[in-house]
Every structure is written in structure tokens, then in C-alpha cells.
């Protein structure tokens, strides 16, 4: 089922494009914005012209593309950073390089883009794009934190293959995901202007403790063989990073994954279900929100061998005896303290909603996010399509989205419901 595009008729968007290989995606973003009905003005840094031409973006936006603060003509356009800052409903920087992020964080004003950002009275959305180690560097993370403190909204970079050939977090969010975020930011809510308020985007988690589990577990058969599953950990990592961006103190308990450990939080590496159970129980008392996104093994070998099991010389079946692992989620539900919010996940193939409702009730959960492996785009890939069930009977189906956006949407729903309960 395709998701209808948002209606941005009459909205005015300034798009800043910087010198990243991902600048080619700006052309698609402009087309999507125009198709949604928005009026678009594009600003480019000089280095961005190395990757995409002003003619291309000007043709698509149907407006002149500006780069320099002081253009060669004398028509007064050197003041356009002021007029554009007043004109825009939203300023989006996509892609945003480490260089431009640093300049925005510290008030540099050396291009039409950075000058307009300082003049803008509207919210500003930053979409980072850079190589993995540049994104992970403490200086970049400090600058992103500074942008959030100023009041800018920051979309997390996506995980995947990068232009350098490395695999990690650093990819610019896809234009469709940025479009959805733009629609949320200008959806008649009139959020406070960037640089003039605390956090203009999602509900805050400042002062709260969030516990997240992620990834698979590995249950040893012998020293070289394990029972495991295809979980990548992407959903749990996205939730942990989204919560941290909202100001929470986050602990991520993760099974073995190929993902880079996120910065700005406690990361506890575990292997088995028993180790994850122990790590979670040691931290559950202080957690205000618990998100159990890990794919924990239900069974483990009853008698793992201390030596490698050799292949038999016959074709006789190999019998492996299994025993149940600790039910981490059920234990959390049994010992849930007043005010604590417990969110579980369920990946199903049949009778998804019925199975999820039973799990919600049996394990004393506040929410459960269920997806069906038979649905295209759901499950172990970079996207997800979930249905959110609440203990109060709420049923909300979310569209297919990148998992970073699913994490934000999930947090929005949970926090909004929590706010209603306490108001």
C-alpha cells in the first residue's frame, strides 16, 4: 500500500545544499517538495557546485540558486539572506557536511547559506551526510549537540554503505524520509523558531533514563557454533539514538551486531540471552522507559560442548537438546514499578495482531510494536512497517519507513500518550 504524499501547498521552504557526494539527492528532494505543493528556494555552498549544478536545482525549483553573500550584480540581492530568513516556513540543510555543521554550530557567516541560517526566523532542520569516522568524531557529535541546544532539529544519519567503501552511520537520510519530517515540522503547529527556543521538534526526554535492548543473541552449541537469528540491531540502535537526541540518559544493551556503537550513551555488549537478562535486570529499577527491541533467543543448547563437536561418520540425525532461556520481557513486566513505561516488540508471520495482543496482556506491557515478516519492507532490513498496540486498546498502523523514522514516530506516540495520562 503506497503512502500518499504530504500536502505542502503554500509552504515556503529554503533548501541548503552543501559539498557532499549526497548533494545529488537534493535534486530529488526539490522535486518531491514541488510535487507536494511547496515553494522552494535553493542555497548552495561553493563546494556543493562540485557535485550538482545550480542550473539543475534552479530548473527544478523554478527559482534562482544563490551561493555568495555578495553577488556580482548590484540589484540589492546581497540582502537576500535577510529576506529569505523572513520568508521561509522551514530551512532545511540537506546534505549537511561536517564543515557546514561546524559553521552553523558556531555562528559562522561566510556564504549565503550560513548567513540566511543566522537570519532565519523559522525552524531549521539539519540532515547530516559524511563518512563514518567523521560522523562519529567527538567534534562532530559536539557540534550536533550544540545545534540541538540552539534549537535546530537534527535527523540522524542513516547506516549503510558510504562513498568511501566503508559501512557505517553517515548516509544522508533518504529524500522521502526528509519530506515526511518537513511535513511534520510545518504541519500547522507553528513550532518556535530555530535559535530562539529550546527544542523545536519532538517531545523532550530530558531528565529521564531510557533502557533499550537491540540485536540478536548467540547461544553456543560448542566453541565454534551458535544458534542465532538475522537481527541487525538497527531498530534498537535507532531508538537509542532518538532517545538520546531528545535529552534522555540512555543505556543500550546490545547483542552482537555489525553496527558501530553509538556515542553519548552507555553501551553494554552481551552475547547470550542469559547475559542480556542479567544486564537488563541490573538496570531496570532506574529506567523510566524500557524498549525491548532485541531478538532474544527463546531456547539455548541444554548442554553446550566445551570442545568442537566433530561431524559423525554416519548419516544419523544429530539431536540437539534445548532448554528455555530467561524471559526478559516477562520478568520486566512482573517487576514493573509504578510510572515505568514498558514497550515490547513482536515479529510475527501469522496472526500477528492476535499474537501481539496476547503478549501485551500476558507480559504486562504498556505498548507493543508488532510487524509481520511477510510484509514487504518489514523485519530485518533497513525499513520497518509496524502496528502499535497500547494497553488501553489503541491500535495505530505506521507506514513503511526507514527505521530511524519509525523510532521517532514510536517515541512520539508513547510520549504523547504519557503526557495525556499525566495531564
Describe the structure.
The two termini are 36 Å apart. The protein has helices at residues 24-35, 54-61, 80-87, 98-105, 112-119, 132-136, 138-150, 175-185, 234-245, 273-281, 328-334, 352-362, 403-422, and strands at residues 12-17, 39-44, 90-96, 124-128, 153-154, 158-161, 167-171, 209-214, 219-222, 225-227, 249-254, 266-269, 289-292, 299-301, 322-324, 341-348, 367-372, 383-384, 387-390, 395-397, 401-402. It is elongated and about 80 Å long. The protein has 423 residues and is an alpha/beta fold. A hairpin with a 5-residue loop joins strand 6 (158-161) and strand 7. The chain folds into two domains: 12-185, Rossmann fold; 209-303 and 319-422, Rossmann fold (3-Layer(aba) Sandwich). Helix 1 (24-35) packs parallel to helix 2 (54-61), helix 4 (98-105) packs across helix 7 and helix 9 packs across helix 13. It contains 13 helices and 21 strands. It is 31% helix and 22% strand.
Amino acid at each position: 500500500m503506497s503512502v500518499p504524499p504530504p500536502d505542502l501547498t503554500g509552504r515556503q521552504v529554503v533548501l541548503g545544499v552543501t559539498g557532499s557526494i549526497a548533494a545529488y539527492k537534493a535534486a530529488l528532494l526539490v522535486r518531491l517538495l514541488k510535487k507536494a505543493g511547496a515553494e522552494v528556494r535553493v542555497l548552495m555552498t561553493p563546494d556543493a557546485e562540485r557535485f550538482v549544478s545550480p542550473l539543475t536545482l534552479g530548473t527544478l525549483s523554478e527559482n534562482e540558486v544563490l551561493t555568495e553573500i555578495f553577488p556580482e550584480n548590484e540589484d540589492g540581492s546581497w540582502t537576500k539572506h535577510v529576506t529569505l530568513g523572513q520568508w521561509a516556513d522551514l530551512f532545511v540543510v540537506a546534505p549537511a557536511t561536517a564543515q557546514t555543521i561546524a559553521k552553523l554550530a558556531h555562528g559562522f557567516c561566510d556564504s549565503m547559506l550560513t548567513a540566511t541560517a543566522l537570519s532565519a526566523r523559522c525552524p531549521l532542520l539539519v540532515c547530516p551526510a559524511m563518512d563514518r569516522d567523521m560522523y562519529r568524531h567527538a567534534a562532530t557529535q559536539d557540534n550536533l549537540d550544540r545545534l540541538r541546544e540552539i534549537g535546530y532539529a537534527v535527523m540522524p544519519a542513516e547506516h549503510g554503505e558510504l562513498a568511501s567503501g566503508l559501512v557505517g552511520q553517515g548516509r544522508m537520510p533518504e529524500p522521502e524520509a526528509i519530506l515526511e519530517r518537513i511535513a511534520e515540522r510545518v504541519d500547522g503547529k507553528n513550532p518556535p523558531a530555530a535559535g530562539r527556543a529550546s527544542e523545536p521538534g519532538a517531545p523532550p526526554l530530558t531528565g529521564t533514563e531510557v533502557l533499550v535492548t537491540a540485536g540478536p543473541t548467540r547461544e553456543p552449541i560448542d566453541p565454534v557454533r551458535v544458534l542465532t537469528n538475522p537481527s541487525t540491531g538497527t531498530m534498537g540502535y535507532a531508538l537509542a539514538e532518538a532517545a538520546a537526541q531528545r535529552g534522555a540518559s540512555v543505556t543500550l544493551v546490545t547483542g552482537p551486531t555489525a553496527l558501530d556503537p553509538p556515542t553519548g550513551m552507555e553501551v553494554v555488549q552481551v552475547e547470550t540471552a542469559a547475559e542480556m537478562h542479567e544486564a537488563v535486570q541490573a538496570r531496570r529499577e532506574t529506567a523510566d522507559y524500557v524498549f525491548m527491541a532485541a531478538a532474544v533467543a527463546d531456547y539455548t543448547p541444554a548442554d553446550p560442548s566445551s570442545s568442537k563437536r566433530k561431524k559423525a561418520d554416519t548419516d544419523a540425525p544429530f539431536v540437539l537438546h534445548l532448554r528455555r532461556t530467561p524471559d526478559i520481557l516477562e520478568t520486566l513486566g512482573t517487576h514493573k514499578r509504578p510510572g515505568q513505561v514498558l514497550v515490547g516488540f513482536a515479529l510475527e508471520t501469522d496472526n500477528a495482531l492476535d499474537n501481539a495482543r496476547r503478549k501485551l496482556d500476558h507480559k504486562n506491557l504498556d505498548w507493543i510494536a508488532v510487524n509481520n515478516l511477510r510484509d514487504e519492507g518489514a523485519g530485518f532490513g533497513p525499513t520497518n512497517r509496524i502496528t502499535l498496540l497500547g494497553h488501553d486498546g489503541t491500535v495505530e498502523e505506521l507506514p513503511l519507513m526507514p527505521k530511524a523514522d519509525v523510532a521517532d514516530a514510536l517515541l512520539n506516540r508513547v510520549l504523547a500518550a504519557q503526557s495525556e495520562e499525566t495531564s
